[in-house]
Amino acid sequence: MVCVFRYIVQSWQSAETPQESRLPSMHLLRLFAFVALLAATLTTPARALSLLRDPDIEYALNQLAAPVLKAAGLSPSRVDILVIDDRRLNAFVVDQNSIFIHSGLLLKMKTAAMLQAVFAHEAAHIANGHLVRRPIAARNARTAAGLGAALGAAAAIAAGGGKAAPAIALGAQSTAQRLFFVHTRAEESAADQSGLRFMARAGIDPQGAVEVMDIFRGQEALSASRQDPYARTHPLSADRYRVVNRLAAGYAGNARKDPQADYWFARAKSKLSAFQRSPKWTLTRAGEYGYADVKLMRQAVAYHRQSNLKRALGAIDKAIATRPKDPYLHELRGQILIESRQFKAAVAAYGRAASLAPKNALILGAYGRALLADGQVSKAQQFLEKSRSRDGRDDRVVRDLAAAYARQGNKGMAAVLTAERYAIRGQLADAGIHAQRATDLLPRGSAAWQRAQDVLSAAQAAKKKK
Fold it and tell me: What are the residue ranges spanned by the domains of the chain?
């Protein structure tokens, strides 16, 4: 499902994590995060950014990104494609392991090649070392803390903050935008050339890159408050546009049709739009891409959102009949059932999905959630732990693990997990309360006790700053 995973970053202390606080090298990195995030928030208060975590959409985007990542010399298994719940148009990188794209930009794309052009351009920033030359990667964005700090700064910039922020020195004067996201024109030109080269190597139509740039033409003539964030983080000039056109024309002969890319593009965009658009809108356009299973999936989502369980299950079951071994269709069936409070049936659906995709953290977490709802606490805990070990950024899993420990009478573990969940969300005052409770309940010196101490220290530091 499209689950909104909120990383509320209220202050720089959300960059703290228990493991990192015990590594000496992280102190300097944490300082970088604090300085950049502070500068980014000095001028314009930013609303929180949220991730849309959906195993189907993320798998589809990874399938689309894989060819350009390979062409860039990057490992598709190491670079996550993550969707931000924001209608504004933007995409960015914060480290070597994550590419972020706003839902608004994803929905704006008309072809697979356009979306792959975005991924190729961002991959070029990674491959060309543009992130290494600045203290942007305060932390690996695979961690909750690193992701929270990055999204906090991204929110400020997307809101227009940072552009006029006072410069803060860390060896050189630079604004928060330069510290985190804004690329120079030289870097943009280099990323254009590399991105188009990656597309050519992968056999992707380079005209997709031109079509993406067409969307943003004229943005630089607008005031900063009216520009899409992409225009502020990726400056576009007339010269740059002409160069991209010329390069695309030169690579045009390398393009070849890729039915798989077209399918996964249709699937990702269709599912996202089904959850974000009105059910009526979705039903009238369900079959626009010509794929029977995608049409049925969209109908299932629309009927579910209309609380029509019978028709939703009918549609998703027909979709599953076309692709019986597709774990993501079974996962959607599980979502429809659990949100309709059909817990036992949801367990069966999620169980089937987990058996088909035993390493997918989001599916494992959803299966654990269903088991917990059905009262199978011990088994739920096993799958939730597996999910958390594979992807520690999902605060729903942390929440559910806390509930599982609480039901088994382990109040200390429940308390420390609750403290960590609040810390991930940037709610340090609440995190401190639960961390103190965990400290009192857990064996002194144990690993869990130390985790509680780390959260407590962060909360106390936050309190002193007020």
Answer: 3-254
**Cα 49 to Cα 7: distance, rounded to the nearest angstrom:** 7
Q: What is the mean pLDDT of each run of 10 residues along the chain (466 residues)?
A: 40 34 38 38 48 94 98 95 90 87 96 97 90 52 56 62 34 40 73 94 95 79 53 65 89 90 98 97 97 98 98 98 98 98 98 98 97 97 95 87 96 93 78 93 94 84 68
At residue 368, φ and ψ (nearest 5 deg) are -60, -40
To which residue do tokens 């993406």 refer? 212
Q: Alpha carbon of 146 to those of 103, 400, 446: distances in Å?
A: 21, 22, 25
Burial of residue 107 (number of CB atoms within 10 Å: 0-12, 13-18, 19+)? middle
Q: Which three-class secondary structure state does DSSP give residue 34?
A: helix
Beta carbons of 376 and 408 less than 8 angstroms apart? no
- Could you tell me how far CA 451 lies from the centroid of its own chain? 25
First to last CA, the chain: 38
**Structure letter (DSSP) for residue 161:** T
C-alpha span between 321 and 329 (Å, rounded) = 10
User: In this structure, what are the phi and psi dihedrals at residue 297, rounded to the nearest 5 degrees?
Assistant: -60, -45
Report which residue type is found at 237: S
Secondary structure E strands in 261-377: none
